[in-house]
């Protein structure tokens, strides 16, 4: 049998190492107890939902519901139907538990990518998507936004909450280096945009911009974690950090990276409406 090269042995060792070394950033944080994985925090999500004003009896679709934190905020509005669209099974048990807390709302899960939901055209009143377009290449970003526009009824609104770059005229070389470092650290391609770039993606899909909002990117800062997760959530995360060395190392590396680029990163929220 041929001997393995040093590179092959190292790769094999990495595959056999702690799962935390391989997980994409959002699933690593979820495993460590972080339930709010939003660039602008729960505060921005709530602001967007208040502005979007989902009404009882309306139909809402959420792209990438994950473990169901935003789903709970949507379901408390008593929509007639909630549809979660997600190709990944990892968050399904937690999401199912959340959905079960709102028996008065009809719910449906669709195993599909957001750019090809299979839902009927002009069938829903609102589409919500958070921290998922950022992880897509430009082609998939555009395709997903077009799909949201397709399934929205005329007058329906599309709410996004994504990672952004500041200032609006950020040096392209700086932006490129930030994107590379984020992708290396969280182990998934990340392509945040400036506010004008995000709005252009929506406008190109035929949507009209109704509201924009920016907030500081403080995902892993103690103050934001407390605001997002509450005292019990913070204690749970701290317990996991104490007992899970590999997870703690990854979390601290992610926080260091976000701090390094704090002057150029933010959370961006936009509400866009499909013309009547």
**Treating each run of at least 4 consecutive H or I residues as one helix, how many helices?**
10
- Based on CA atoms alone, the radius of gyration comes out at 19 Å
Helix fraction, binned, reads 40-55%
The major sheet is characterized as:
7 strands, mixed
Tally of distinct domains: 1
User: In the CATH classification, which architecture applies?
Assistant: 3-Layer(aba) Sandwich
Percentage of β-strand residues: 15-25%
The CATH topology is given as: Rossmann fold
Mean of residue pLDDT values: 92
**Number of E strands:** 7
Distance between the termini: 68 Å
Protein name: Methyltransferase type 11 domain-containing protein
Organism: Actinobaculum massiliense ACS-171-V-Col2
Domain Methyltransferase type: 62-160
Region (Disordered): 1-23
Give the key terms:
Methyltransf_11; 7-stranded mixed sheet; 276 residues; 44% helix
Short précis:
The chain has 276 residues and is of the alpha/beta class. The protein has ten helices and seven strands.
Overall description:
InterPro entries: Methyltransf_11, Methyltransf_Superfamily, SAM-dependent_MTases_sf. The chain has helices at residues 6-16, 25-31, 41-52, 69-75, 92-99, 138-151, 172-186, 195-204, 222-243, 245-260, and strands at residues 59-63, 81-85, 106-110, 124-130, 152-165, 208-216, 265-273. The chain contains 10 helices and 7 strands. The longest helix has 22 residues, at 222-243. Helix 2 crosses helix 10. A 7-stranded mixed β-sheet has the order 3-2-1-4-5-7-6. The chain has 276 residues and is α/β, with parallel strands linked by helices. The protein has one domain (22-274): Vaccinia Virus protein VP39 (Rossmann fold, 3-Layer(aba) Sandwich), CATH 3.40.50.
């Amino acid at each position: 049998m041929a001997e393995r090269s040093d590179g092959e042995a190292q790769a094999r060792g990495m595959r056999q190492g702690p799962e935390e070394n391989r997980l994409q950033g959002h699933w690593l944080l979820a495993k460590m107890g972080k339930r709010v994985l939003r660039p602008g925090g729960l505060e921005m999500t709530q602001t967007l939902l208040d502005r979007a004003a989902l009404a009882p009896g309306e139909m809402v679709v959420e792209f990438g519901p994950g473990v169901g934190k935003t789903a709970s905020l949507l379901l408390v509005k008593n929509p007639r139907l909630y549809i979660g669209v997600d190709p990944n099974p990892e968050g399904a048990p937690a999401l199912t538990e959340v959905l079960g807390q709102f028996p008065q709302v009809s719910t449906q899960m669709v195993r599909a990518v957001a750019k090809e939901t299979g839902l009927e055209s002009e069938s829903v009143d609102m589409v919500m998507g958070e921290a998922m377009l950022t992880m897509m290449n430009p082609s998939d970003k555009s395709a997903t936004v077009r799909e949201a526009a397709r399934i929205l009824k005329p007058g329906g609104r599309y709410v996004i909450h994504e990672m952004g770059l500041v200032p609006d005229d950020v040096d392209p070389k700086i932006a490129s280096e930030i994107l590379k470092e984020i992708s290396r650290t969280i182990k998934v391609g990340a392509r945040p945009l400036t506010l004008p770039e995000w709005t252009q993606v929506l406008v190109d899909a035929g949507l009209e911009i109704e509201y924009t909002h920016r907030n500081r990117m403080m995902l892993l800062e103690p103050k934001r974690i407390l605001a997002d997760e509450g005292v019990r959530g913070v204690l749970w995360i701290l317990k996991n950090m104490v007992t899970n060395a590999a997870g703690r190392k990854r979390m601290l590396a992610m926080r260091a990276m976000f701090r390094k680029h704090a002057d150029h990163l933010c959370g961006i929220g936009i509400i866009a409406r499909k013309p009547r």
